[in-house]
């Protein structure tokens, strides 16, 4: 019997060589050169069936293998009917139409589980930053100005809070959101968690993180002293002007999900009006550009989309992408399917919004 074929997009395997040896022994791996991965040439190659019929697509690294741009129906429709799974690095999937893949009978798997630890660690830093005004203190110390130093030393504590006395709101309690909750509870004993998600967690899970479920987003916003966005981007803004007015007065916002979830102009206004007291951002609406008014505000701590950026995450991305393909093609079950609920229901059904 011929081996199943896998189209490998991006750089060669760098870390998990033993696993790749098993992968290559089971599959016929085709890795198109960079020139064939640019969108026009990639489309031509698919139309010409240059790689024949293949069964899976593997993208083990986030920094390479995406030269063809967004995976929309224009691209997905050109795939051979034999393709049944796409396994990619990365936690988000705003670049791929998972609903469309489901209509074509293709399972999509991401790498969120591999980045959970790294993202959660960075989120704890941002949570601590917004509660303790660390951006203000950090900038003042680096300014070399005794006046700025004295100002931060004297005044930043007046609005700072101990996280353990506060309520943390989490929007999206998936692999990353749950890891954030667990780490926050361990780091800040006494912190209460309220969350919103499509599916409520089991009572024992809620009990382990002292969490309360909210049926609505508004229920989280009205209770939380700090709201963490840990939900995938489904094509629409979640935190806008009307939503910001539902935050607890002086609430804080941390976004480690996707920049497009937040209306940054509305966020600036909420900060200037004092409705929001501090912001932590790993992601931005127009990356690699950041909002200039947010960047210069001493209440806003910014990162450069590095929350998941560790060697450990890259090793995990690579391993999980291969394990998803191995599991699906050899045993009929992927490890981290994103659109499984769409594959099991009526094809073409609208993706349910988390919010």
Question: Could you describe the 3D structure shown?
Answer:
This protein has 355 residues and is an alpha/beta fold. It has 15 helices and 12 strands. Helix 4 links the parallel strand 4 and strand 5. The longest helix is centred in the middle third of the chain and has 21 residues. The C terminus is likely disordered. GO terms for molecular function: glyoxylate reductase (NADPH) activity; hydroxypyruvate reductase [NAD(P)H] activity; NAD binding. Keywords: Oxidoreductase. InterPro entries: D-isomer_2-hydroxyacid_DH (IPR050223), D-isomer_2_OHA_DH_cat_dom (IPR006139), D-isomer_DH_CS (IPR029753), D-isomer_DH_NAD-bd (IPR006140), NAD(P)-bd_dom_sf (IPR036291). One of its GO terms (cellular component) is cytosol.
Terminal-residue CA separation: 47 Å
Specify the oligomeric state: single chain
Count of separate DSSP helical elements: 15
- Provide the low-confidence segments as ranges: 345-355
Rounded average pLDDT = 93
Helix content: 25-40%
The structural class is alpha/beta
Secondary structure tally: strands: 12
Shape: elongated
**Over the alpha carbons, how many angstroms does the gyration radius reach?**
22 Å
GO molecular function: glyoxylate reductase (NADPH) activity; hydroxypyruvate reductase [NAD(P)H] activity; NAD binding
Family: Belongs to the D-isomer specific 2-hydroxyacid dehydrogenase family.
InterPro entries: D-isomer_2-hydroxyacid_DH (IPR050223), D-isomer_2_OHA_DH_cat_dom (IPR006139), D-isomer_DH_CS (IPR029753), D-isomer_DH_NAD-bd (IPR006140), NAD(P)-bd_dom_sf (IPR036291)
GO cellular component, one term: cytosol
């Amino acid at each position: 019997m011929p081996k199943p074929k896998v189209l490998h997009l991006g750089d060669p395997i760098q870390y998990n060589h033993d696993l790749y040896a098993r992968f290559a022994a089971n599959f016929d791996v085709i890795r198109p050169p960079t020139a064939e991965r640019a969108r026009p040439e990639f489309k031509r190659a698919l139309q010409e069936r240059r790689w024949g019929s293949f069964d899976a697509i593997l993208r083990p690294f986030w920094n390479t293998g995406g030269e063809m741009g967004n995976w929309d129906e224009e691209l997905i429709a050109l795939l051979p009917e034999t393709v049944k799974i796409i396994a990619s690095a990365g936690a988000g999937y705003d670049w791929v139409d998972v609903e469309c893949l489901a209509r074509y009978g293709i399972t999509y798997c991401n790498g969120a589980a591999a980045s959970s630890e790294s993202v959660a660690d960075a989120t704890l830093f941002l949570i601590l930053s917004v509660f303790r005004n660390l951006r203000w203190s950090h900038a003042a110390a680096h300014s070399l100005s005794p006046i700025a130093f004295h100002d931060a030393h004297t005044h930043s504590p007046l609005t700072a809070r101990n996280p353990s006395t506060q309520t943390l709101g989490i929007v999206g309690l998936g692999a990353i959101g749950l890891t954030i909750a667990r780490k926050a509870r361990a780091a800040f004993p006494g912190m209460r968690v309220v969350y919103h998600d499509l599916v409520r967690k089991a009572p024992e899970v809620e009990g382990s993180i002292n969490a309360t479920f909210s049926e609505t987003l508004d229920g989280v916003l009205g209770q939380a002293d700090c709201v963490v966005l840990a939900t995938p981007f489904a094509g629409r803004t979640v935190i806008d002007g009307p939503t910001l007015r539902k935050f607890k007065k002086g609430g804080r916002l941390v976004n480690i999900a996707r920049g497009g979830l937040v209306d940054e102009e509305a966020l600036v206004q909420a900060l200037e009006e004092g409705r929001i007291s501090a912001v932590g951002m790993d992601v931005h609406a127009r990356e690699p550009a950041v909002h200039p008014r947010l960047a210069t505000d001493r209440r806003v701590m910014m990162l450069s989309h590095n929350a998941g950026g560790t060697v450990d995450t890259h090793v995990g991305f690579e391993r999980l992408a291969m394990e998803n393909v191995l599991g699906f093609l050899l045993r009929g079950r992927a490890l981290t399917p994103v659109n499984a609920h769409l594959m099991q229901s009526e094809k073409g059904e609208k993706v349910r919004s988390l919010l």
